[in-house]
Amino acid sequence: MEETKVMNIFGGEKHVGNEDLDTMPPLKEDASETELLDYMVLVLSRQMSCSYAFKGGYMLNQLLGGYSRMTHDIDFSVDRKGDYEGVKSILKKIAEKFKDMGYVESYSIKEEIQERMSGGIDFYAEDGHKVLGVDVGLHDISYGIKHYDLKFTDIDAFTVERMLADKLIAITTRKRFRRTKDLYDFYAITNFFDVDIKKLADFIEIRGGAEWNNIPFNDTVLVQYKIAWDKLELVNAETGAKIDKPLFDVALGRYYAISLSIKSGDVLKKWRHDLSDFS
User: Fold this and answer.
1) What pLDDT is stored for residue 2 in this prediction?
2) What's the maximum distance between 2 C-alpha atoms anywhere in the chain?
């Protein structure tokens, strides 16, 4: 039986069947930043032999399209520290190709990975500023993972509930002030996807770290949080245009509706994005 081949955005083919997975796929001379991110995902998904799961802003671009914020990084997790050596070798091959083609001037690969210290790579332009990156975390990926069929490759990635769990937890902590994008992401995801609240609650418990006593926020935190929110500038992932954020009270109200429900133990229901309410 002949293997199925589907054209991908790099001028090559998306293969279903046996192939030399170590071969670097073609990359056009005038690739955009988005296409460079896609290229890295393509190479990593083909060449990683370990278990992995993509997540973060890149995955939101795939799920939300033009309603997601622009990102310059790729995030994924592996569940074994020893797998990172193989990941580094793939990242180096990608980096050398980007250098040879003039997309980046230099790069820096993080040598180690720990539970609370991510690995990965940063790419730099000629003037020294970072232009692209890959963040590799060390996390349990035995739960909350789904197989996604992208236009150019197939990958494993976090489910909506697991992505929301990470963001809900972060917002309960002081990270909220330097990661106001989490509140926007939380609002955007729940605006376009139904959410199994029981699964979300289970994933939060597995992950741990939620500082439930901090919500609802006191008046001092609310003032500081709104200032940080008002300073947040977001760019559309597809058009590059400025994203009009919802009002702070609207975004926070959405977060409260779901997080306080879980805090109270009321989890046997589903969030309906079309209703902006529970069912």
Assistant:
1) 35
2) 66
Average pLDDT of span 66-90: 94
Work out the angle at residue 22's Cα, subtended by the Cα atoms of residues 19 and 27, and round it to the nearest 5 degrees: 95
Neighbours of 68 (CB within 10 A): 24
User: Do residues 121 and 89 make contact, with C-beta atoms less than 8 angstroms apart?
Assistant: no
Task: Average the pLDDT over 11-30 and give the result.
Answer: 68
Quote the CA–CA distance of 263 and 266 in Å, as a whole number.
8
pTM of structure:
0.88
Token pair for residue 200?
Answer: 């979300």
Tell me what percent of the residues of the chain surpass a pLDDT of 70: 92
Least confident range from 59-68, 83-92, 172-181: namely: 59-68
24 DSSP 8-state letter? P
Q: How far, in Å, are 37, 115, 176, 236, 242 from residue 23 at the CA level?
A: 18, 31, 42, 33, 38
Q: Can you list the alpha helix ranges (DSSP code H) found in 115-159?
A: none
